[in-house]
Protein: TIGR04086 family membrane protein
Amino acid sequence: MKRVSLKCVVVGSVVDILSTNLAIFPVTILVFIFSGPAAAELAASDPRALMASNLFKALSFTFGTLSSVLGGYVSGRLAKHDHILNGALSSILCMGFGVYALLSGRGSLVVQLALFALTPLLGAVGGYLSARRSKPQ
Structure:
C-alpha cells in the first residue's frame, strides 16, 4: 500500500471530475444556443433531451477523456512515485459515478462498460506523462 498515495489519488479524482464539469458547462450553453428556443425549452423540462444532441455527446466524451488524462497527470505529479499506478487510480471517482448512473438507470450498459475499461487507461496515460516529465534529463 506504500506505492499508492491516497491523498494524491483523491486530488487527481477531484481534478478529473471538476475539470470535466467546468469544460462541459460552456458546451451545454452553446448547444442550447445553437439548438434554438424550442430545443432549450424541451431540455429545460427534460434534461435527458440534451443527451440527444450528437454534438453534446461528442464534446462531452472528448472533454471527459482529456480530463481523465489531466487527473492522472495531477495524481502522478503530486505522488512523485509510481506515477502510472497513482494516475490510473485517480479514475476511481469517475468509475463510482458510472456505477451510480447504471444503478439509477441513467446510463447505457455498453457505454459504461467501455468507460470502465477506458477511464483507468486514460488516467494511466496521464501518470505516464507525469513520469516522463519528472525524469531527469
User: Anything to note?
Assistant: The mean pLDDT is 85. The CA atoms of residues 43 and 50 lie 6 Å apart. The two ends are 29 Å apart (CA to CA). The chain has six helices and no strands.
